[in-house]
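Box 3.1. Reading complex inputs
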Amino acid sequence: MPLTDKFGRAITDLRISITDRCNYKCVYCRTGNEGALYGDLPFADYLRMARVLVGMGVTKIRLTGGEPLLRKGVVEFVRELAKLNAPNGNGRGDPLDIALTTNGHLLADLAQPLKNAGLTRVTVSMDAVDPDRFARITRVPNGYDHVLAGIRAARRAGLWPLKVNCVLMRGFNEDQIIPFGMFAREEGVTVRFIEFMPLEEGRTWSPDTVVTLDEILARMGEYRPLVEIPRGRSETARRYRFDDGVGEIGIIAPVSHPFCGHCSRIRITSDGKIRTCLFSVWDHDLHAQMRRGASDDELAEFIREVVQKKEERHHIGEADFVPASRTMVHIGG
Ligand code: SAM
């Protein structure tokens, strides 16, 4: 029976955070003072969780963190994940889409080995196309060249489609919208702007800090006209092409245009807890079930029960909003 929550949403998309350590301290994510809080697990444990979930209908697995490329052994882990789609494995033989979200700092050397191991595609986070601005946002000197080299290596390796995610935060990078439009056209990547969500360690979010979908569209329209592209039901990003057909951008607008009704995701944190929503106020300890010796069937039953508790929607910007029990870096975005 497919994994479905009580609102009828099929759960097909799993995100696994393989560490909550990060080598960047992006202003919209980390305070810059705290390191990893929760630690991580042996890859064999994530692999077992993934295998059980693939057997329950998950078709997409995204590795994230923290910064996932800080984990030694990530290439071998991808190789093992890629075997889960074998028809005689515990999965159902459906093609498994294995993706990675990374800040790109270590990607240049890893892109080809990851591709060879079975990674399908990669999303690189990059919040400015100007080296100085990039350093101000990430609070790491000289990162820009590494990330650009990582993006180009991923393209050469055939990790496709290649997406570049930019979180816009007022006062830091809203003037990067048009430069990113040019970047998308020149580099042949899809640039996706993400509205800033209240998931940062520093608790600096307010509605005023969010650069909204409408504002992004208006600003980009001053550069070139955009044409909306139809998108899949569970796709989070609204997609646009420039009028001459060169370059694609996307906008992920969880604040101004929430898409919870189509959410197909669950997350596993680096310490093995299930989160049913980014904004959950509790976790569900899957790893504790493994430690107590649960069988795969028992793990599946636990997961089924947890999925029934998936929140209907988030309450960002509403009077009853309660901050999530973990910040983004400790959940896995
Ligand atoms: N270190 C990897 C990276 O930089 O892509 C993976 C983890 S990071 C937490 C995943 C994504 O979450 C990144 O694209 C990042 O920009 C985004 N993100 C982090 N904090 C956010 C926030 N408060 N609002 C919106 N997106 C956020």
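In summary: The two ends are 28 Å apart (CA to CA).
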